[in-house]
């Protein structure tokens, strides 16, 4: 465990930050976030935000600004939505056709995704694949009928946001597209994943920054942030106050731990990952 980034500031030249759970939860920036970003800037560190958002980096610029995080405090943002659009433009999904059954957040945003990727939104009977971009329905079960029909037709799925859940400003959890995609994969359906923990997005991040000597990824998801860092062969810093906070509390209630290291290691093993360091909040000390 570290108390703050001051403990490791001299070990790394590059800090790859998750957005939700590290800098904010959809509302105002966390109390220490701006000061910690300023601390990294004062020490001349490369800072990039790597976000499992189905939107583009341009959308993240505005969300970060609205939260109180200045644009000069980070080099750039790279999102899973950017990753997906990159693969469409590179022709990776030409074999899927352009008629998509869209699982999205809303008509306006869906329109942007469809235009960016050269797609047409159609009913399931006319679809050549599924574009899983958002969660408008309440639960995964609300998508099951469509998933059953799609699976019977052999449709493949492209998912732009692999997160299973995301924290709300009130501390609750919202369902994310990754939960739908995971259900389809569990059925035996083919799913094309984007964002963390896919190796390609870390390679894109490396190119974006012009390389690094020693990088560390900071995030609150063992499945995405820490697994992604492990896959990319870089160090990681796990925030215990994010989406796994309840998991850690539950484990403490069911088993006695002699120290927090054992607790975090025990939960990490359940995901078959291991963070280099862990911390409560994104903070200097």
Automatic annotation (TrEMBL):
Matches recorded under InterPro entries: HAD-like_sf (IPR036412), HAD-SF_hydro_IIA (IPR006357), HAD-SF_hydro_IIA_hyp3 (IPR006356), HAD_sf (IPR023214)
Tree of life domain: Bacteria
GO molecular function, one term: phosphatase activity
Gene3D superfamilies: HAD superfamily/HAD-like
Stored Pfam families: Hydrolase_6 (PF13344), Hydrolase_like (PF13242)
GO cellular component term, pick one: cytoplasm
Keywords associated with the record: Hydrolase
Coiled coil regions in record: none
Name of this chain's protein: TIGR01459 family HAD-type hydrolase
Organism: Moritella marina ATCC 15381
